[in-house]
Design a protein that fits this description.
Elements: H1 5-11, E1 29-32, E2 35-41, H2 61-82, E3 89-100, H3 108-128, E4 131-137, E5 145-153
Parallel strand pairs: 3-4
Antiparallel strand pairs: 1-2, 2-5, 3-5
Helix pairs in contact: 2-3
Length: 157
């Protein structure tokens, strides 16, 4: 398997959904001092709709973990559309994972593993795993999971 993230995406047979339109006044991505910041992304499906549900009520842990993985695909689509070449990313630095859940549900890190495992598959264990927070809350539009992330870019000559 190739070391290039774009080739890993192809090797894994991953299909990126369309990038979501901004749902407010913000930039989908922003580059500052060699870092790529990605605004919160929801789990957009290839048909342009979101995976919705509340973990602990209408959605299981397994379904929520798959939704978190779908957020990863959505984020890659947003990066490709608004930033460009995915291979310019050196590593994942930080992840903030937000899970739409009941107050009783307390397995938020296991949900966000869906995103983290995908990033490790694409960028490798060393560069695809960064620092992370996983919290529960009520999310807009009842999307199942929302994730924002920060990536370090390769230095350009």
């Amino acid at each position: 398997m190739s070391n290039l993230p774009s080739q890993r995406i192809a090797d894994l047979g991953l299909i990126l959904p369309p990038p979501p339109p901004p749902a407010g006044l913000y930039k989908p991505v922003l580059v500052i001092d060699g870092f790529l910041y990605v605004s919160g992304q929801g789990p957009m499906k290839t048909d342009g709709t979101y995976i919705t549900g509340k973990v602990g009520d209408t959605m299981s842990l397994g379904e929520a973990k798959l939704a978190a993985e779908q957020v990863g695909l959505t984020m890659l689509s947003t990066i490709t559309t608004h930033f460009g070449e995915i291979d310019r990313i050196k590593r994942l630095v930080k992840t903030l994972g937000m899970v739409n859940s009941t107050p009783e549900f307390d397995q938020h890190p296991l949900v966000i593993n869906g995103f983290s495992e995908l990033m490790a598959d694409i960028f490798g264990m060393e560069n695809g795993v960064g620092v992370r927070s996983a919290v529960g809350m009520t999310l807009p539009g009842q999307v199942a999971v929302e994730i924002e992330a920060m990536f370090q870019l390769h230095e350009t000559p």
